[in-house]
Amino acid sequence: MQISFSNKFKKQYKKLPSYIKDKFDEKLLIFSKDKNDPVLNNHKLHGKFKNFRSIDITGDIRAVYEEINRNSVYFVSVGSHSKLYS
């Protein structure tokens, strides 16, 4: 699977505490093997995010991505639930 990241995502990721970056890296490894693994809570978004999906990184941290095609995804943002969807 090809995984790419937006510049916005990269900036948000840099600002995360190291323990959350580590957690994201763990979840990304799981995601690359099986994007529907139950631990990710992969789900469709609605409203202005209707073309995107989200995975759980920690209890409140989410990573939002867009499926480009069957083998390619594009992560667009990462952060707390309240900051991403406000």
Protein model, in words:
Helices cover 34% and strands 33% of the residues. It has three helices and five strands, in the order E-H-H-E-E-E-E-H. With 86 residues, the chain is of the alpha+beta class. The chain has one domain: RelE-like (YaeB-like fold).
Query: What is the CATH superfamily classification?
Result: RelE-like
The dominant shape is globular
Query: Given the helix and strand composition, which structural class is it?
Result: alpha+beta
Please give the order of strands in the largest beta sheet: 1-5-4-3-2
* Poorly predicted spans: none
**What's the order of the H and E elements?**
EHHEEEEH
Mean pLDDT: 94
Overall number of structural domains: 1
CATH architecture: 2-Layer Sandwich
Q: Kindly provide the name of the CATH class.
A: Alpha Beta
**CATH topology description:** YaeB-like fold
| N-to-C span | 30 Å
- Compute the gyration radius: what is it? 12 Å
Largest sheet: 5 strands, mixed
Distinct helical segment count: 3
- Counting DSSP E segments of at least 2 residues, the number of strands comes to 5
**Helix share bin:** 25-40%
Roughly what fraction of the amino acids lie in strands? 25-35%
Name the descriptors:
86 residues, alpha+beta, YaeB-like fold, 3 helices, 33% strand, globular
